[in-house]
Design brief:
single chain, alpha+beta, six-stranded mixed beta sheet, 16 helices, 22 strands
Length: about 500
């Protein structure tokens, strides 16, 4: 049923303005941006939500719950727009990559939203590795066989939720589901589908070899010829949601090959953008799209800010507030003597082992809670070092690395660890909501109001790498890799 109370008709005496809707992995938010891509204060709403986890690795989201809070966020900004009589001309969306749901003939969900951190489909990813040449497939679709992508999950659903699959007429992203409910019209982007693991990045079409092995028909997927088209609703253009990682790079001003975005929010990622007709996808990295002209290449960690959050919830005697940050910053790298694999939600980059789990070695009676936290944050920085080396060797040396995301913005000490682990200076991006801003900027470009190449992001402090810590971090990385080898050498 179309939610008729979501009209955005406004007084067109000012503007133009863009409403940005960001569907994140832990919250939904709306914001308002002006014609230069700057946030307009006093508009928008954010609502946090909880995911459902199971002991066997399941991570799901109730689509009806997510729909409800998304509508609440849209309704609130619609009221604000009417009250202040601003000229909103478009709605731009961003949403978490890889997640999807099934819908039936009546348009209602047949499955939960399958979250990107769900690892239950690992055995089906392994089965795909036996059936197909993974490197050849990855060179086309930019994704390895892993439980975070659609192919393994569709196989898992077919065996574990057969009745739901039989009722499913379409497999769609949550962004498409939301637009159908709000506007009554379908809307999907190349960007969102490019992160499914089903999309041939250079052909801009579904991969036929993969489809032939999966319990899915091409007609159950969004028609490529109809992608990227805005929906006209209540006088506004609603642009299909793009992948949150693509939006993050745009919002941080990292839209060329020589600028890497280092993002840590709930998860973590390092990405760069290449605008070119085609691309040779490097092994060890993933490749998706912003649109039909721009590729996004990078690596991703399932555990980013979640590691900090997990430690804060479970470790006793940690300092509170600024005291914690000060103590972390004052500690000597590696002095704790611990080796950590920060793989609480399994591993994605660089080895894509869905069965891998976190481990801590070197604990003693002398170890304190702050030691475990510091070692874990350093461990995440070391995982980023592995991603950085893949991108540097295959894409090229970056001129700049920009730090984005809530976790790094709130912890200068962690950002400094990143600079030391990477051996490169890191610039702090001051744009607070880069995914929301990126979606708005892309909509402004599509409306002909600006060009992304002409946009910039606000930059703050530069975190210089400490040459005196170079050998320490190199030794810690060697120890971490040795631990990984002992636990997961197969």
């Amino acid at each position: 049923m179309v939610a008729s109370n979501l009209s955005f008709t406004a007084d067109f005496s000012t503007g133009p303005y863009i409403v940005s809707l960001d569907i994140g992995t832990s919250s939904v938010r709306t914001m308002l941006f002006d014609a230069e891509g700057q946030q307009v204060e006093g508009f928008g709403k954010q609502i946090s939500y909880e995911i459902t986890t199971t002991s066997d690795g399941g991570v799901e989201i109730d689509p009806q719950m997510l729909l409800q809070i998304s509508q609440e966020c849209l309704t609130e900004i619609r009221k604000q727009i009417h009250e202040k009589k601003v000229n909103a001309v478009a709605v731009a969306g961003s949403g978490f990559w890889h997640s999807f749901l099934g819908i039936g003939q009546d348009g209602e969900p047949t499955t939960p939203v399958m979250h990107l951190l769900d690892t239950r489909a690992q055995s089906y990813a392994d089965w795909l590795k036996e059936k197909l040449d993974q490197k050849k497939v990855q060179s086309r679709v930019g994704c390895v066989f892993h439980p975070s992508y659609w192919p393994a999950r569709l196989l898992w659903l077919a065996e574990n939720r057969p009745e739901a699959c039989q009722k499913t007429t379409e497999w769609i992203s949550f962004g498409d589901y939301l637009y159908r409910k709000v506007t009554g019209k379908r809307a999907e982007s190349t960007s969102m589908v490019s992160g499914s693991g089903l999309w041939d990045q250079n052909k801009n079409d579904y991969d036929d070899e993969l489809l032939s092995l999966l319990p899915i028909r091409r007609e159950q997927l969004f028609n490529p010829d109809e992608m990227d088209q805005p929906v006209e609703f209540e006088g506004l253009k609603w642009f299909p949601a793009i992948g949150d990682g693509a939006a993050n790079n745009i919002g941080a001003g990292c839209i060329t090959r020589d600028r890497f975005a280092l993002m840590i929010g709930t998860t973590g990622a390092m990405r760069t953008v290449a605008e070119q007709p085609s691309i040779e996808i490097p092994w060890g990295a993933w490749c998706y799209r912003i649109d039909r002209n721009r590729f996004v290449v990078g690596g991703v960690l399932s555990d980013g800010g979640k590691v900090f959050e997990w430690m804060n919830k479970r470790l006793a005697d940690l300092p509170e507030g600024n005291g914690l940050e000060e103590k972390l910053a004052a500690m000597t790298p590696g002095a704790h003597g611990l080796v950590v694999l920060p793989l609480f939600a399994g591993e994605r980059s660089p080895n894509w082992n869905g069965n891998a789990r976190a481990a801590i070695t070197g604990l003693s009676l002398h170890t304190e809670s702050i030691d475990i936290l510091r070692a874990s944050l350093e461990a995440v920085a070391l995982r980023f070092r592995l991603i950085f080396e893949i991108l540097r060797d295959r894409v090229g040396e970056p001129k700049e690395i920009l730090a984005t995301g809530e976790a790094l913005r709130h912890s200068p000490a962690w950002t400094q660890m990143m600079a030391d682990a990477l051996g490169r200076p890191i610039l702090s991006c001051l744009e607070e909501q880069t995914s929301s801003r990126g979606a708005a900027l892309l909509a402004l470009e599509r409306l002909g109001i600006l060009f992304l190449a002409q946009t910039t992001a606000k930059i703050g402090k530069t975190f210089q790498t400490d040459a005196g810590h170079r050998e320490t971090y190199a030794a810690m990385l060697k120890d971490q890799q040795a631990l990984y080898g002992k636990l997961y050498s197969s």
